[in-house]
């Protein structure tokens, strides 16, 4: 992949020449469509479409304003669909199997959740179930739902709600941390037991890759790519 | 290149959820015309919320480190590990490389979060214009690495589920791990409550 090129957006106007009231000259939502405000420092820019591999940084605080969406809606949908399949495999197959003098023990993600619940760590069981199952699954299903309709250029039923949910759920999905945690657990267990990695660990590894790719996508782009369905 | 103007100075604000730009309003019940979420120029009660959650996290951080997080039981021995002793054991018996990763995720990251969030909150309260760009970068760092501290919690969860060989060998979670999970969630909530725009507001200098 090509390295990122840094792009800049044009500031909306010179602060000193035209203080305040610039908004008065912009009527309605249409004319604010091409403005973008830095989420970290509140600087206002005029948006322009970015070329492949470009990332626009805020000149004031350095945060990322916008990045080129290198995957089209169809490709994004394919990616989400793949993620759903891998997610199912990751959750039904054993992650690792331990052997100790002829006995065997295996676990899945839900096995870990249930073990924590039964051993008096219900809060941890709840956190694990949310951050490793419900939030990632919700993210995949909701993103899939809006993308399915976005392929036809329309907004899915419940679009505003779905888009808000995607933004709110994103920081709480922790598949990649779980992946690293599995590796640490395997190394720790390896000292005392025979460890056989199961299909689940590969699925989680692959899911980590997919999650990394789709966390580079900004679903908010869909607001601009879709229009309200004609009633 | 001149400094771009700020939305608040231009009488605008952007929806914190969908980024739609609208006219500035003081109305606390105003909703985004596009996504329907509540509009606000700055996160509500950002500094006090972030402080409260940070202090709560710091309090829970003590039992998280003092209490053991995991019990390893076999016929001949019973071994309770705290976060730190678990890392030392991993260093000795397993893999020093992974021990460094776990040490970073479980000790360095939470401590850095306390220090950085405390520093950001104090400088914002003093309306300091000092090193704003660097502080903005620190905030983005905290947001980026915060959730990796869940690492040890997941390790205990997997081991507890796996090592279930009746009396021969058994791993159980202990209360420390619950406190640690709570610490991670509270520090994440604290960082989310903090509004980085405040770094650029009301600066005394410049």
From TrEMBL, chain B:
Where does it mainly reside? membrane
Keywords per UniProt: Cell inner membrane, Cell membrane, Membrane, Transmembrane, Transmembrane helix
Report the InterPro entries cross-referenced here: PqiA-like (IPR007498), PqiA-PqiB_transport (IPR051800)
* Membrane-spanning ranges: 50-70, 98-124, 145-165, 177-194
Subcellular compartments: Cell inner membrane
User: Under which name does UniProt file this protein?
Assistant: Paraquat-inducible membrane protein A
Source organism per UniProt? Luteibacter jiangsuensis
What is this organism's lineage? Bacteria, Pseudomonadati, Pseudomonadota, Gammaproteobacteria, Lysobacterales
């Amino acid at each position: 992949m090509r390295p990122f090129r840094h792009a800049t957006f044009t500031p909306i106007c010179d602060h000193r020449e035209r203080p305040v009231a610039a908004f008065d000259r912009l009527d309605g939502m249409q004319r604010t469509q091409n403005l973008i405000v830095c989420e970290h420092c509140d600087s206002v820019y005029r948006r322009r479409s970015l070329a492949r591999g470009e990332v626009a940084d805020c000149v004031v605080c350095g945060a990322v304003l916008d990045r080129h969406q290198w995957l089209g809606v169809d490709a994004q949908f394919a990616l989400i669909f793949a993620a759903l399949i891998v997610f199912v495999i990751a959750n039904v197959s054993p992650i690792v199997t331990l052997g100790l003098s002829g006995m065997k023990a295996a676990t899945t993600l839900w096995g870990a959740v249930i073990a924590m619940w039964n051993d008096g760590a219900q809060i941890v069981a709840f956190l694990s179930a949310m951050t490793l199952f419900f939030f990632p699954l919700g993210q995949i299903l909701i993103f899939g739902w809006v993308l399915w309709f976005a392929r036809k250029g329309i907004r899915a039923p419940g679009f505003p709600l779905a888009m808000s949910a995607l933004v709110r759920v994103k920081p709480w999905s922790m598949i990649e941390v779980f992946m690293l945690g599995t590796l640490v657990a395997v190394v720790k267990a390896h000292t005392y037991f025979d460890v056989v990695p199961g299909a689940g660990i590969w699925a989680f590894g692959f899911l980590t890759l997919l999650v990394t790719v789709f966390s580079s996508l900004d679903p908010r782009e869909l607001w601009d790519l879709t229009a309200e369905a004609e009633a | 290149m001149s400094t771009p103007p700020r939305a608040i100075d231009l009488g605008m604000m952007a929806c914190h959820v969908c980024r739609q730009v609208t006219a500035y309003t003081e109305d606390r019940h105003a909703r985004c015309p596009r996504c329907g979420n509540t509009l606000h120029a700055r996160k509500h009660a950002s500094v006090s919320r972030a402080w409260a959650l940070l202090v709560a996290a710091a309090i829970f951080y003590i039992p998280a480190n003092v209490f053991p997080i995991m019990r390893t039981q076999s016929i001949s021995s019973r071994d309770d590990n705290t976060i730190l002793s678990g890392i030392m054991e991993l260093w000795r018996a397993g893999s020093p490389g992974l021990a460094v990763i776990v040490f970073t995720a479980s000790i360095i990251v939470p401590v850095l979060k306390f220090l950085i969030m405390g520093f950001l909150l104090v400088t914002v309260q003093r309306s300091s214009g000092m090193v704003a760009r660097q502080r903005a970068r620190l905030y983005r760092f905290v947001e980026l690495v915060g959730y990796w501290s869940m690492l040890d919690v997941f390790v205990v969860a997997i081991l507890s589920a796996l090592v279930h060989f009746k009396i021969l060998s058994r791993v159980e979670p202990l209360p420390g791990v619950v406190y640690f999970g709570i610490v991670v969630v509270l520090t994440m909530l604290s960082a989310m409550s903090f509004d980085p725009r405040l770094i650029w507001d009301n600066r005394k200098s410049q």
